[in-house]
């Protein structure tokens, strides 16, 4: 009467057994190997049963406490934390002192004995989970609102845990959550799930989402895992391991684990008592040996991801719409088996079907206190935080305006905290500019004196919406926002792709209208994820500097071969970008650091010469075939091979930067083809020789991507990082345009790819018009200018 086994429950039984138990029953009934045709592999779910919500309501009725609870709730002030605490405690105390009625006790004990017998044990250890009848709905998950009791053994402890679950319906957080969602407290029932405990206390456990949790990007499965019981993740006490698996190529049979990040797993929960004795859990330290290894292996990751697909597909078919899932899993440390212990609908992104783009407009007649070169088209405000050097970065707090002389790759990790960035130096293609664009943070560079004019703690407004000139105002300035519905953005004949370097923003960027990636930069991945000079990794065993070796050993601790560390990290970074835009083409440019930038990597000073003019020095193609650097370049090629062949991301093409002569081109292509047999290989058109000898270059490469930043500086002789020279000429200069027109016409004539990935079309709408009129195949833009440029070009076309 009060008990239903998982095999008898479906998702339709939410009113009877709550969302958690209904989902467990649905999966046990339809997705386990027992329920599928012979030979078909299903998911593993530990067996168990549910105490129904009717039992809870009868408990209130037979215990004669329902009216008393209703009277107590009348005194609740949901806006007062003290009121919540007082009311919650009164109701929980009332429930806990009320005995379970005898029929319910007998039924629970009878079925517990049956479950124990099925596992060949006298008193099987179980997890006792609360499952509310309004739980795991598409609009309200109730996740974490009610209690779970792990490692519960024996009849007496089980009955106690069931009553504790009943009382957890009135935890302060649960009362507050229901108030916020407008649920009536006394109409919500509580079912209790009693499930065979997986020995994850000596194994591992975690959660899995069948979409990207930050952006709602649908083609990714995110798996988090730790050692010990999964409750430690909920507590937020440690950083779990994280794995990203790409759905489309996983379905094709590839080992599509496109990212693996080792967490900080210093603590874990294990059983407090020995197995089959009085239960509970306790917190212990994780051994140093386990802290530096992943909690599950690649085979486990792929198995879990496939199960995630099975569960998502099942619920999507049942609901006749995409239904991404939030899943809990556990690995038994005794048997090595994996299990799914819970699944609920994801409730944040699955409901968000609207896609909008916002544009800003400042509203003031005040004069700015400072101006510079505007990056992006947004407005930011906050308190000034002056940072003198990278060692002081920890002083930056979220929402502050970062003010400094200039940034470099070491600053990148802190930049997302800033509401805006202001620098003394730099131009449109300096580090601060490029990273700010990709993060969508308003930035003003080349102010000349920001660190002298601005003071710590001043409230400022940073305006990048007034064209090329960025303006900094004292105080909070009002502004308007204009919103565009993405569905209404027109599609152009000219392909509009994006420039991107940071893998972390790839999924978000892929949601705007685009035709792929015209420039994926390796430099940001190397600077942020690798951080070590590739030759320091390649020659690790021969390094004489003991201190340096110790630093590298610590950073690469999960890899015996330090070369593998570079290959894996670069492959994962590139793959995250390629996956975000799959199956559209993603053009990955091989590393284009200059010697002064390579020297900033750990160990870089051992392998890089000091050059008077690094911009015109040992960079691009000239490095790749040089005997000193070629081993590092081959590691880059191996990373691309991993992304394409192991992960299945065949939408990747590669590009060679700063190739001065056709002879250089032939040498580099020969090396690339040792690893990438069928991948398209493009060359950057950024040196006058690329234009003057265009046919010779096109005999070697599959097409050209115009690097207008370098081409402009080399045609008109301007240092692109010098803000003082920016007024003399830019890409609209006739000499530059003649060069670019020639590239477009010859590539089109020879039926070769021709695109542009330089800064100009993002900055100058008239330059974008010029490119379209000349017949360019693709224009690659910074993410924050894509929609603005599409709308402008569509208007011109009309």
Map the helices and strands.
Elements lengths: L2 E3 L8 H17 L17 E4 L1 H10 L3 H8 L7 H17 L4 H17 L7 E7 L15 E5 L2 H13 L4 H10 L8 E7 L7 E6 L10 E8 L3 H5 L5 E6 H5 L5 E5 L5 E5 L9 E5 L2 H4 L6 H22 L5 E7 L6 E8 L10 E7 L7 E6 L3 E8 L14 E4 L15 E4 L7 H9 L3 E3 L4 H4 L5 E5 L5 E6 L4 E7 L9 E6 L5 H4 L7 E5 H9 L3 H5 L7 H10 L6 H20 L4 E4 L5 H4 L22 H4 L5 H17 L5 E5 L5 H14 L5 E5 L2 H5 L1 H5 L4 E4 L1 H9 L17 H16 L3 E4 L3 H4 L1 H10 L3 E4 L4 H12 L1
Helix pairs in contact: 4-6, 4-7, 15-18, 18-21, 28-29
Tell me what the structure shows.
The chain has 798 residues and is α/β, with parallel strands linked by helices. The chain is 36% helix and 20% strand. It has 29 helices and 30 strands. Helix 4 packs antiparallel against helix 6 and helix 15 crosses helix 18. The longest helix has 22 residues. The chain is globular, with a radius of gyration of 30 Å.
| Spatial strand sequence of the major β-sheet | 23-24-25-26-27-28-29-30
Choose one word for the global shape. Answer: globular
Q: Structural class of the helix and strand makeup? A: alpha/beta
Major beta sheet, specifics?
Answer: 8 strands, parallel, barrel
Radius of gyration, whole Å = 30 Å
State the distance separating the first and last CA atoms. Answer: 71 Å
What is the helix fraction of residues, given as a range?
A: 25-40%
- Report mean pLDDT, rounded to a whole number: 89
CATH H-level superfamily of the largest domain? Phosphoenolpyruvate-binding domains
Any idea of the CATH class of the largest domain? Answer: Alpha Beta
The CATH topology of the largest domain turns out to be TIM Barrel
Total helical elements: 29
Counting structural domains, the number is: 4
Q: Bin the strand percentage.
A: 15-25%
Unreliable stretches (pLDDT < 50, length at least 5) are 136-141
CATH architecture of the largest domain: Alpha-Beta Barrel
